[in-house]
User: Fold these one by one.
Assistant:
Number 1:
Amino acid sequence: MSKVFDDIKNFLNDWWTKNGPKVEGMVKTTAEKAEHLTQKARLKYDLYQAGRDLAKAYEELGEKVYHDMSENKKFDFSGDDDIQVLMDQIVLAEKKVQEVRDELAQVGMTPEDDPFEEEMPEDVNAADVPETDEPKVGE
């Protein structure tokens, strides 16, 4: 039994000596790629969260302006501190979104990967038209 064990041990030792550096290199490469993907995922989540914060600030501003205009008949907002606070929140949220987009660009994210990138109007219009097999009128 000892002979079999020694043969297996020698075989594995020889195999590791030949292939060990390759395996270590593959493990290192895999770990680096996983870390890169984790960083991209975290940044995408940060971008999503910053976009939600920006949308919330716009929503609050819209509600405040609508309320003041419809119920209080107020049309001058230059001295309204609440409006200014909301506008400052929007500016900060826009800066945060841009900072995260810049970080994503540094790690190699393309604009197509950006969940808040707006579609071009022609893309939206083309996407809304269903494909049909029916001949068009006049054909």
Number 2:
Amino acid sequence: MTASLLSVSRTRSVPVAYGLWLVGGLCGLHRLYLGHRLSAVGMGATTLLSLPLVTTDPGLLGLVTTTVWALSDLILIPEMARGLDGVAAPATA
């Protein structure tokens, strides 16, 4: 088989990523879509653990952290999608 048949398209849509950011930005849905699984899990866990503790200092700090993180992702989403396009998919044997 040729290499083109083995490669998997990893192109992600920037508008879809922004839509996911709008719906679930604090939970990291856009990061999960763009292939940043570990940071998506960290973002989601921080948000979900902070919600019940929002009246305490650690809970408020967690929500402020993920809010700043999500707002910075507004600028970073196009670069994350572009970086994903440049990554070659591993060939299967």
